[in-house]
Each structure stands twice: as C-alpha cells, then as structure tokens.
Fold this protein.
Amino acid sequence: MFVVSVTIFVNREHLEPFIAATMDNARNTRQELGNVRFDVLQCEEDSSRFLLYEAYHTKDDFVAHQQTEHYLRWKQAVADWMAQPRQGVKHQSLFFGDGT
C-alpha cells in the first residue's frame, strides 16, 4: 500500500470553496481503481488546517491519480487559497486497515 498524507493551511476567507473543491476531488478519487481511501480531515483547534490522507494500491496508482482531470482541476482551483505551500509526505504501509 502506498499512502500520502498532505497537510494544507488555507486562508480563512477561502475555507468554504476549498472544502467544496476538495470534496469533489475526494469523491472522484474514490472512483479510481487504484485508490483505496481518501480522507479529508479538518483540524479541531485550527479550522484552516487540513489533512488529506490518501491510500493507493501502488505508487503508480498515485502517479496516475495526479494526471486525472479532477486532481488537476482541484490543484489549479486551490493554489491561490493556501496560506503556505502544501506539505505532502509519502509512506509505504507496514500495517493497513484490517492488516490484510
């Protein structure tokens, strides 16, 4: 399993459109054959901080995701709404979900 966690800080005046665009990307990503999960999390203490937790069967599935229409639409839409560049960390899963 290939997992990506992305921390994003959004300018407060863009919270609603950011959430809408991100939910569109998440819903479409879940339709990709290579995607296992796509969680959108909003920080409890700081509503302008988000975590995207994405899991793919393989790294190639993640690379394919980055070429999709919905991802490219999201990336362009949210670029100017971020308070700082997003921070993505890539992981290889050692134990995932139910362990299978």
